[in-house]
Amino acid sequence: MAVPSFSTPASITCQWEARTQVVLTANNERVESGAVAYVSTDVAQGDWLKLGTLATSTASDPRDESGAREVVAFEKRTAPLIAAGPVRKAYLR
């Protein structure tokens, strides 16, 4: 079994909402998401997000971070006319 490796944590701007819903992954699997983050940059299925600042991040493996959540699906859509760019949603386990 392959051992995952993680890059250095990066800070991104997002709006985090605790909300349970069923979403489709890139593999067309239905999974339950416990939160959605509207993010300022593209992320990918399998990435990890944590609400807070980099100063509160202590573990080198995000799976060991309290409050870190795995991205189970990512969606990028053209924004409505009033938005400044695309709307990016990261659905979190």
What does this structure look like?
The protein has 93 residues and is an all-beta fold. The chain has one domain (14-92). The protein is built from no helices and five strands. The protein has strands at 14-24, 30-39, 48-49, 69-77, 87-92. Strands 1-2-5-4-3 form a five-stranded antiparallel sheet, with no helix packed on it. Strand 1 and strand 2 (30-39) form a beta hairpin. It is globular. The two termini are 22 Å apart. 14% of the residues are buried.
Quickly list its features.
mainly beta; 93 residues; 5 strands; single chain
Secondary structure elements and pairings:
Layout: E1 14-24, E2 30-39, E3 48-49, E4 69-77, E5 87-92
Antiparallel strand pairs: 1-2, 2-5, 3-4, 4-5
Mean pLDDT: 88
- CA radius of gyration is 14 Å
Helix content: under 10%
The strand count comes to 5
Overall outline: globular
Query: Please, how many domains?
Result: 1
Main beta-sheet strand count, sense and barrel state: 5 strands, antiparallel
Instruction: Report the end-to-end length measured between terminal Cα atoms.
Output: 22 Å
Residues in β-strands, percent: 35-45%
Total number of helical segments?
0
Order of helices and strands: EEEEE
Strands side by side in the biggest sheet:
1-2-5-4-3
Low-confidence stretches: none
* Coarse structural class: mainly beta
Short description:
This protein has 93 residues and is mainly β. The chain is 0% helix and 41% strand.
